[in-house]
Specification:
Pfam families: Phage_integrase, Zn_Ribbon_1. The protein has 14 helices and 3 strands. It is mainly alpha-helical. The protein has 3 domains: 92 residues; 150 residues, hpI Integrase, Chain A; 49 residues, no CATH class. Helix 1 packs antiparallel against helix 2, helix 5 packs across helix 9 and helix 6 crosses helix 8. The radius of gyration is 27 Å and the shape is globular.
């Protein structure tokens, strides 16, 4: 979205004063409060380090010193990773702010994010133990709504009774991380609990009236009673579990991206790594099932009865050969593969589609 130009005297203002004009601009364009706060935190961090200079007085050296000093004074490797991820966004936001002020001559290098580590997920037994350890309906709603919808903790805490549509089993999320409204679907356990709870709530009441700290402590307490490793439990683990289970059960990557509210599908693809064992099993079915050995035969050679038998046994899998390209990501499909190697899409589900013959054309 293109930003309107700044006031004519913007160069004479200090960084923090100029940001107030920037804030008004973002608000006029419909940016939500959380996004504006993120911009403010980044610009404030730069302003405090550099002495809050006038926009006209900012130098390339100021920017270089800010980034270098902020990243070099962290010795602990885990803290450094977090700092680098924070400064990835800080540098993005400061760059956009300075460009808006007209200082396009300044180069703000974007700090690279550190690679994601594979997120921990909960097993079926752990989820059941957590449910059994809940003391009341609010506990059960927290556990099940987080798992069955994959919402972020911050989104859960903003859901109001009027956002819940029990008839269609939907929840409209209005206060999301990136300010884009989206819809998630209510699972069976959450539906049962909400059906009882919603009757006692007014339209504007929050369905989980807790602070983030209160939610965090409550989940830790449930985990302790359940005998689940407390050190690994936090609200976001349910989001990871939801994403992984959704892919295991056949949900395609694009649909999962929309449900999770990811702006980039690359973020969603992280969860494919957690399906390594499932993908390995599918691979072994193809290559180690006793009928995958390939024999090179002379085209003029008459088929033996053995070859005809193998051909007949494999007839049921021939439909898979008609699917040449993944309809989700466009990657070429390996012969007989049941899942796309690139995005994890369940190719075998397309066999139920009566128009298989049209799937193999790559456009």
């Amino acid at each position: 979205m293109k930003l309107p130009p700044p006031p004519a005297n913007i160069a004479e203002k200090t960084v923090l004063d100029a940001f107030e004009d920037f804030r008004a601009t973002l608000m006029s364009l419909g940016y939500n409060e959380k996004s504006i706060k993120s911009y403010y935190m980044a610009v404030k961090n730069f302003a405090m380090f550099s002495g809050n200079p006038r926009i006209a007085d900012i130098t390339q050296i100021d920017i270089q010193k800010w980034i270098t000093a902020s990243l070099s004074n962290v010795k602990n490797s885990e803290k450094r990773k977090k700092r680098m991820n924070t400064f990835h966004y800080y540098t993005l936001f400061v760059r956009k702010f300075l460009q808006w002020t007209g200082r396009k001559d300044l180069v703000v290098p974007i700090v690279r994010k550190t690679p994601f580590s594979e997120p921990h997920v909960l097993g079926e037994n752990e989820l059941e133990a957590l449910n059994q350890a809940c003391k009341d309906d609010r506990d059960r709603l927290i556990i099940n709504l987080l798992f069955e919808t994959g919402v972020r903790a911050s989104e859960l805490l903003e859901i109001r009774a009027k956002d819940v549509d029990l008839k269609n089993k939907e929840i409209i999320l209005k206060n999301t991380k990136y300010g884009r409204q989206r819809t998630v679907f209510i699972g069976p356990r959450s539906y049962d609990i909400l059906s009882k709870m919603i009757k006692s709530l007014r339209p504007n009441d929050k369905i989980v009236n807790l602070s983030y700290h209160g939610l965090y402590k409550r989940i830790k307490s449930i985990a302790k009673r359940a005998g689940v490793d407390v050190s690994s439990i936090r609200p976001h683990i349910f989001r990871h579990t939801f994403a992984t289970e959704s892919l295991k059960r056949g949900l395609n990557l694009s649909a999962l991206q929309r449900l999770l509210g990811h702006s980039d599908i690359k973020t969603t693809q992280i969860y494919l790594h957690l399906l390594k064992e499932d993908i390995k099993k599918e691979y072994e079915k193809v290559f180690y099932n006793g009928s995958s050995s390939v024999q090179i035969r002379n085209p003029s050679h008459e088929k033996t009865s053995e070859e005809k038998t193998v051909e007949t046994q494999s007839a049921g899998s021939q439909d898979l050969l008609k699917i040449k390209y993944c309809p989700m990501c466009g990657a070429k499909v390996i012969e007989n593969a049941k899942f796309c190697f690139n995005c994890g899409y369940p190719i075998h589900q397309l066999l139920a589609n009566s128009s298989l013959e049209t799937v193999g054309t790559h456009t």
